[in-house]
């Protein structure tokens, strides 16, 4: 089977969507598909190619579409970039007649469907705007892949999409990266963290809807643990440190290569996913509460470390009381209480961590790829 994965994206990128795209292309190819990743040619401060940056096999091709690179130039700049990529796709595929398309880009998907390709849309965020266009575009798709059940319900109810057009395929993780058997102490040595004491960890970006400020405030009430935050751009880290400079047991490391994440996670005693119900970006609020399918959650599960998570529908679609400890979102006092409960109940925490690990086997990139390929061939 020939698959074109189309992404109007700057890659490599420090953002999570780039990791997802790279890992899915690798997984599709590992499952026997002939894969070509089609990207926009954009300015990039990150050196190196997709394969080296993400540490993936060179088992698929990469092609680039020239675009007007105007992202960051406001509303019109964004849409000019989108349109230039879409029309570039039409030129690029003018003589191509075979193959199927998978994409996370609704405009590209719609245009490729008009070109006669069977297009499968991998939905990672339900639209809050432009609903009329989305309804038309989604009905042109040969199938829609959803990362959680909430999106399936919304597509069915709001757009009238039939059930047989929808596939539930949650995000995933790279099982081979977490199969390394390493002790907590050796993991800490590898990443330069203290060998003694408890470590509570968060990995990921520092957007306000991620809830990391709540974790920072909770750190003040968990003085017997070091709270370590791994992730964030240089600007995000500087702002975050300024806001929380008085918290002595808080360390912000900043962005690290994704290949290092298994070591960081295995160095922790507790892993926190503190998603918020509050954001300066109104569109991020429903995304955090209902829509997201965090890759970090599956990686936390695979690390065999106890998880403390916000009690939100998006998180509860994957874990429950048997596999995680929940706290009231945006409540630093309740988050601190939950962290202390995990640290003081070693046996119960170990049992939940092991159950989470067992469940994580359902969510590898390769298993996700196989389900999608079966869906595309139906």
Automatic annotation (TrEMBL):
GO terms for molecular function: glycosyltransferase activity. Residues 184-350 form the Glycosyl transferase family domain. It comes from the Bacteria. Gene3D superfamilies: Glycogen Phosphorylase B. The keyword Glycosyltransferase applies. CDD domains: GT4_PimA-like. This is Glycosyl transferase family 1 domain-containing protein. It comes from Candidatus Magasanikbacteria bacterium RIFCSPHIGHO2_02_FULL_51_14. The lineage of its organism: Bacteria, Candidatus Magasanikiibacteriota.
């Amino acid at each position: 089977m020939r698959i074109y994965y189309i992404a109007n994206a700057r890659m490599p990128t420090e953002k999570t969507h780039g990791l997802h795209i790279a890992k899915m292309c690798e997984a599709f190819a590992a499952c026997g598909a002939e894969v070509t990743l089609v990207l926009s040619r954009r300015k990039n401060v990150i050196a190196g190619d997709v394969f080296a940056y993400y540490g993936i096999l060179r088992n698929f091709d990469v092609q680039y579409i020239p675009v007007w690179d105007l992202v960051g130039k406001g509303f019109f700049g964004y849409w000019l970039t989108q349109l230039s990529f879409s029309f570039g796709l039409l030129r690029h595929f003018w003589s191509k007649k075979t193959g199927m398309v998978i994409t996370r880009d609704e405009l590209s998907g719609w245009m490729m469907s008009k070109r006669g390709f069977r297009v499968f849309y991998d939905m990672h965020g339900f639209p809050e705007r432009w609903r009329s266009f989305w309804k038309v575009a989604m009905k042109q798709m040969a199938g829609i892949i959803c990362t959680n059940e909430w999106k399936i319900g919304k597509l069915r109810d709001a757009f009238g999409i039939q059930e047989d057009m929808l596939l539930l395929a949650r995000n995933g993780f790279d099982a081979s990266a977490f199969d390394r058997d390493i002790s907590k102490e050796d993991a800490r040595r590898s990443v330069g963290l203290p060998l003694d004491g408890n470590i509570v960890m968060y990995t990921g970006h520092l957007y306000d809807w991620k809830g990391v400020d709540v974790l920072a405030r909770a750190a003040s009430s968990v003085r017997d643990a070091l709270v370590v935050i791994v992730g964030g751009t240089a600007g995000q880290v500087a702002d975050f440190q300024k806001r929380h400079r008085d918290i002595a047991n808080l360390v912000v490391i900043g962005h690290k290569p994704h290949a290092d994440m298994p070591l960081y996670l295995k160095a922790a005693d507790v892993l926190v996913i503190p998603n918020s119900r509050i954001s300066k970006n109104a569109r991020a609020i429903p995304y955090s509460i209902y829509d997201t399918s965090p890759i970090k959650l599956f990686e936390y599960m695979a690390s065999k470390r106890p998880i403390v998570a916000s009690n939100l529908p998006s998180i509860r679609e994957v874990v429950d009381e048997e596999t995680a400890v929940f706290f009231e979102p945006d409540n630093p006092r309740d988050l601190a209480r939950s962290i202390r409960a995990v640290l003081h109940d070693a046996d119960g925490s170990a049992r939940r961590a092991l159950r989470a690990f067992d469940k994580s086997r359902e969510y590898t990139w390769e298993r996700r790829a196989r389900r999608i390929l079966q869906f595309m061939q139906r």
